[in-house]
Design goal:
Layout lengths: L7 H9 L26 E5 L4 E2 L2 E3 L8 H4 L5 E4 L4 E5 L4 E9 L10 E8 L5 E6 L53 E11 L4 E5 L9 E9 L11 E2 L14 H14 L3 E3 L2 E4 L3 E3 L3 E5 L5 E4 L3 E2 L10 E2 L2 E3 L8 E2 L1 E4 L2 E3 L14 E3 L1 E2 L1 E4 L2 E3 L5 E4 L2 E2 L1 E4 L2 E3 L6 E4 L2 E2 L2 E3 L2 E3 L6 E4 L9 E3 L2 E3 L7 E4 L1 E7 L2 E3 L8 E5 L6 E8 L2 E3 L4 E2 L4 E2 L1 E7 L7 E5 L2 E5 L2 E7 L8 E15 L4 E4 L1 E14 L4 E3 L12 E5 L35
Parallel strand pairs: 12-13, 13-16, 14-17, 15-20, 16-22, 17-23, 20-24, 21-25, 22-26, 23-27, 24-28, 26-30, 27-31, 28-32, 29-33, 30-34, 31-35, 32-36, 34-37, 35-38, 36-39, 37-40, 38-41, 39-42, 40-43, 41-44, 42-47, 43-48, 44-49, 47-50, 48-51, 49-51, 50-52, 51-53, 52-54, 53-55
Antiparallel strand pairs: 1-11, 2-5, 3-4, 4-11, 5-10, 6-9, 6-11, 7-8, 7-10, 18-19, 45-46
Amino acid sequence: MAATVTGGAGAARAETAPPAPPVVTRAALDPSLVAGRGANVGFLEQEAEHATTNGTLIGPGRAAYTLASEASGRRAVSLAPGQFVEFTLPAATNAITVRYSIPDAPTGGGITAPLDVSVGHRPARTMTLTSQYAWLYNQYPFSNDPTAGLLHPDWWITECSCVPAATTPTPTITRPFRPHHFYDEQRMLLGRTYPAGSVLRLAVPAGSVAPWTVIDLLDSELVAPPRVVPVAANVLAFGADPTGRRDSAGAFDRAIAFARRTKLKVYLPPGTYQVNRHIVVDDVTIEGAGNWYTIVKGREVALDTPAPDGSVHTGVGFYGRPASAGGSRNVHLSGFAIEGDVRERIDTDQVNGVGGALSHSSVDGLYLRHTKVGLWFDGPMTDLRVTNNVIVDQIADGLNFHTGVTDSVVRNNFVRNSGDDGLAMWSEKTGNAGNIIDRNTVQSPVLANGIAVYGGTDNTVSRNLVADPVREGSAIQVGSRFGAEPFTGHLWITENTTARAGTYELNWNIGLGAIWFYALDRSIDADIQVVGDHYLDNTYNAVMLVSDWPVKDRYSITNVHFRDVRVDGAGTSVVSARTAGSASFANVDARNVGAVGVNNCGSFHFTPAGSEFSLTDLGGNDGGWLAPWLLPNTITCDDRPPVVTPPPPSTW
């Protein structure tokens, strides 16, 4: 790591110091640790903490509501006005993405501030940063007001271990209460291609209105020229405005209608198109020039009266017809960006980038930013392919298969800074079945989980990379909750890697596992196979199986099988069992475990016969974590064991 120089004469030395060699990472990890897992993307990631700077390193830290906790790798660099961070480009580059944070306005609503971008001795260009889409506060579903009192004073909160409305004297709650969702990101085309070895500087101008600017990372890439589709219904011919000054929604509708009649594609040439409502799509292919060149951008618009689905706003989005109206088929969207204007979480609002019911369809190569959910699908629907998309800075989920989505694939997508689950399958009312979530990268979900499966039949979660979940969730969850249909058939969870997961559960006041199984609404007893996963640098446990306290004597978790799993670093235990049930383990190797290998509380009755949770040793479990004295159900319950910070993960 390049030395971090702070202030005074050190700043002058940094000006003339040789550039640091490029350190390329994936989710802040050595790429060799995650080979073959996660999304294959077109950009190279460089963490600011490895660059040359005269700013101040922040982190590492994993406590929620801190800038460090939401940073990739839990570290970043803070710059005061006049300071900089320099990256040596590892490959030819003509485009960059900067992940950053700047302060909120004192009463909320955000500010804007400049960041100068220069390469070598060429003049700097200015990137405008904003915090208008960051900084949420308070209790779910959160507030944009840092001065607000508790949204739910009748809820129990950890801060006072009490229900404030029922407590005398009334506890003092610090404001702003629970600030989070600090980061955003900004893209820039550099106007020319710079060779590998060029030094790119991000500098905060001396007169910046932001007292600090945190730089988390730089993604650099070589973007191909714009794609041209010569034989198509070009939206410009139907009156679309590529400058973004006039609303182009009507022109899009006309181009789509013409394309359907003539069996042509719709082409969106380079430009920024203003669209402030849903574009309804059915039996149509829409292609842009590439998501760096074609941007569909819109405002969030308040509705005069709520829509039938409960929405009180509309906004930019491409939507299939509702499933109740038969859904849409044969829709193919590719090669453009969708940028919304969503700054608050209203769960009834349909202000997502892509939505509705899309069967026998595909969504490929989109860039989705500042919508509520990047892609939210309400089935029943079947045979959807979601591939090669970048989904960032969402208020809620990155993607959700909601209700009766079958035989569909989510592959090679990159998700960062979701406000809820990064990728989710939620079998509410009608089960999802036969779906695959494969080779995706999910980084820094601010709330909830990287990947979550709530009920369903015969689904697969494979070869994903999930890093840095922040609070009230973890990397992978298997949950019987939110009214989901039961798990039936099988669930395969195979060859995934998680990093710096196992978060602190705010309401329970305990640490979770990197992968956790949660029986809240019913028992979990489908055939669940966890094979080939790697759990790296776990804050607490690698694996947790838990039932909520009010239902611990009604529900259990059984038929879970772990095989060929590696655990490299656990702040507490490899396995934490807080439920009745059972699991088997074969060739599960663990090292750098902070406490006892198995924290077995069962359902907390502490019977003379042992725990209500049993572990079966099928052999090959190395590292001493599954010692004979722990089997099959020795009680080793320590509700909150001391956390021992593990060393960084390394090649096995």
